[in-house]
Fold this protein.
Amino acid sequence: MKLFATLFVFLFLQGCATLDTRTQSVESSVIPSIWNASGRIGVISQGQSQSLGFDIEFNHRAFDLTLIGALGLGQVSVKSTAQGLFINKVKTNLNLQQWMNQELGWHFPLEKLPNIVFQYQLSGNPDWTVEVSKFMKYENSYLAKVIKLKHQSQSIKIKLLLQEFSS
């Protein structure tokens, strides 16, 4: 019985040692030039909710985003380069925010995603508030894993869940 009690206490303490007890995260000081991530995005806009999968690759300031509809039905490719914005490989005259509003009914500052993921902030954009509620360890730093964005004057709430990351 004494052995069982000792083993129980040891396992309990071992479990406590693996808990993440950080109350404040350590932000990454360097944003990689090239990185990619995938995950889920949930949006509530104008009383309507939407859930999409996404894959995104950043290469310096350019990005390639694939949005995947519920149950894998429907997919759209959005690519931003120095030559402009391409939707399913066709150049559009719209900017990203205009296209997102027109096609999705909502938008968010996608070009600022690196700052949000690596530094947990959206500086220089007073229209949005950002809250990071969970983090994931990557190399020697922590990245944002669950990100909530809320527009200050429009009815847009977005929750991003990063499931995979690589650089």
